[in-house]
Amino acid sequence: MARVGRRLRILCVAADWLSTAVAWLLFDIVRFHLLDSGFGSLESFLLSGTVMTGQILFPTVMLGIYWLTGYYNNPLHRSRVTEFWQTAAAALAGTLSVLILMLLNDLTADVALDHKLLITLFGLLLVTVWIPRATITAAVTRCFRTGRYIWRAAIISAPDADTCRLPRSISPVCRLDTDNADEYPADDIDCFIIIPEPAQSVDSLLPVAGKLMRHDLPVYLFPNPDGTSDCRYGNRHQSSAPVGRRKESAYALMLTDLSRTDMNESTLNIKRLADITVAACALALLWPIILGLAAAVGVTSHGNPFYRQKRIGYHGKSFSIIKLRTMRSDAEDISGPTLSSANDPRITPLGRILRRYRLDELPQLVNILRGEMSLVGPRPERPYFEQQIIAMAPQYALLHQLRPGLTSWGMVDYGYATTVKAMIERLRYDLLYLENVGFITDIKIIIHTISIIATGKGI
Fold it and tell me: 333 Cβ partners below 8 Å, 6+ apart?
């Protein structure tokens, strides 16, 4: 199915470019008949350099807008209603872009005519783009219904679990138990499906789901016969944390995805674009400061000024976080992994200042550009401590639905944790972020972070 998804994505991109080019061509024809273009014939107008340039550039720019709406993210998980509204939102964004260009260049004196042109463009974009999209979605839906497309699934359940209720579009390849499910090679499957036992809590399944996320495949939770396992809060059947995204798919795979946050695809893409833009601009401006601080660390203490440490990030995958070293280079040579405290003797005098103003975190902008981190997200922990946290608070596995952050709700409202118990207390802030993730929340956290940095309350 991964290959089918890639081909479908290429088909959607090609169809969008062609349909947008058709919409723009029709709009140019309307413009020729409604405006005094100064050309003697429609042919000479359409073949002019300016019009031909627009005929190529506009569909290409619109592809970027389509990507921002999240339309290309999961071509095999698509809702017809969401697809229509994504198309309408992109058409509106494209129309507003043209309005801005008209305001800068060639807005006519006839306001009513300008409005008519803009409404025409919006209608053309909506209709000509949505019809091919709806056709593709209908064709893929038929492939699932007729059995041409099948989800090959690894079932994680008890040996006597009932799999008869699985949708026809799912073909169980194997059955695994919760102890060794993450060791299964995922080359010949498309997803994992966890079937809980009757009255089994979702929390008890979250550590397994967290391990399965490393395969970068959907991890679905199949509902109990009473339907309780796909709810968000409540009794012993349910999780004490936000579980995941409910798949409302046109392709009859309506399960709860534990590997993905409830954030919509458009927000995910815009968040990632903001991460790249801010991190790139910040590095371009701050690299002399980072190098200067690194030189100061190297002069005042022995060892490499940059410190790399293994952390667990998105989908439970490990990565090397980059920081300015604030401790002695031999801080854990004897003791092993040890949490720091406010008066930790291992912290160097300069390191204490860097921590107070969070300046030791600046090199993590590189991690953001690599796609390992985000500006705002849950704090990544070391494997040694994460195992202890999950053993006592299984909900922690849900944090792997998001990229870890340079700053987090837990760090601004709770601060550094000096014990595993404190880490679990701080976890509730990160789960609260997972429940309320969005632009407004991110902006509030960034503002609080700036306040902490400015007042030197980082420790």
Answer: none
Residue 163's pLDDT band, with cuts at 50, 70 and 90, is low
The CA distance from 23 to 59, in Å, is: 9
Global pTM? 0.85
Could you tell me the residue ranges of all domains in the chain?
2-145, 151-257, 265-455
- If you write DSSP's letter for every residue of 124-179 in order, what string do you get? HHHHHHHHHHHHHHHHHHHHHHTTSS-EEEEEES-TT---TTS-TTEEEEEEE-TT
Instruction: Provide φ and ψ at 376, rounded to 5°.
Output: -125, 135
According to DSSP, the residues that pair with 318 across neighbouring strands are 312
- DSSP state for residue 245 in the 8-state scheme: E
How far is it, in rounded angstroms, from Cα 265 to Cα 272? Answer: 11
User: Of 47-61, 214-228, 363-377, which gets the smallest average pLDDT?
Assistant: 214-228
* Cα separation, 430 vs 437, whole angstroms: 10
d(CA 192, CA 218): 6
